[in-house]
Amino acid sequence: MKRFASALLFAFFAAGCMTSTLDKRKQERYSVYASLSPEMRAIVDQGQIKVGLPMDAVYIAWGKPSQIATGESSSGTTTTWLYTGTTWQEHRFWNYRYYPRGRYYAYPQPYLDYDYVPQSYTAAEVVFENGVVKNWRNITPPSP
């Protein structure tokens, strides 16, 4: 019974301490969030973005970008936010396994082993012109 009570107490405190990062970003930039139209607020609440959203609304929805690039278009200066994702790539290699032979381990046998290596890639990019989203796209992870 003590274990159950302590597990329940731990779950209660853990749930109380967890706040979504989206909620944290909303609180951080509440004046911007409050100034958005109800339609834009609903989009941001779902963690999505749309053409026409201001930079701060994209920050609230998606968080801080991994990289920021500036450029120029026929309309003026552009700012591009790049978001990074991680995928796992399988890496195969030959290894040796020793099998017991009597009292000693001997006769190594080769076998094909594998491991997974993390690989970063650009997962999304958002292009801003005059502080609002001009266009954006999600990028699929590279195939292994």
List keywords for this structure.
single chain, 144 residues, alpha+beta, four-stranded antiparallel beta sheet, 5 helices, 32% helix, 46% strand, elongated
Please give a structural write-up.
It is a single chain. The protein has helices at about 1-15, 20-30, 30-35, 40-45, 55-60, and strands at about 65-75, 75-100, 105-130, 130-140. With about 140 residues, the chain is of the alpha+beta class. It has one domain (about 20-140). It has a four-stranded antiparallel β-sheet, with no helix packed on it. A hairpin with a 2-residue loop joins β3 (about 105-130) and β4. The protein is elongated and about 75 Å long.
What's the helix count?
5
Structural shape: elongated
End-to-end CA span: 49 Å
Regions with pLDDT < 50 over 5+ consecutive residues? 13-18
List the helices and strands and how they pair.
Blueprint: H1 2-17, H2 21-28, H3 30-35, H4 38-45, H5 55-62, E1 67-73, E2 76-101, E3 104-129, E4 132-138
Antiparallel strand pairs: 1-2, 2-3, 3-4
Briefly summarize what is shown:
With 144 residues, the protein is α+β, with helices and mostly antiparallel strands.
